[in-house]
Amino acid sequence: MRTLLAAVPALAVGAVSGAAGTLLHQHWWGLALALGTGLVVLAWLPPGVVRVAFAVGWCLAVLRGALARPAGGFLIAADAPGWSFMAGSLVLLVAALATVLAGRDHAEDHGLRGPAT
User: Which UniProt keywords are listed (predicted)?
Assistant: First the structure.
């Protein structure tokens, strides 16, 4: 239950961070800062639900920026910085999903050989 409660702020922080990255990715320093910060935060968070919540929040903000606005424009253009930002966001999500099981307790997992004698 405590992990799920921690996932809500992680989702919100991911969404705000992704939105900030969406607004700044056109500058070289904004792209580097956004993706670097996202990777550092992802590595800092414990594996599991909290890490996935951050990545999902980030990707939802990036996805919203990639979709057409009501005025007809896009926040993420189809240029090198835009594609780099979207690819980096996908890497964040894949890295979070790949480490979901890394946080579980392996004390009872004896592998294929069985317990050591």
Answer: Membrane, Transmembrane, Transmembrane helix
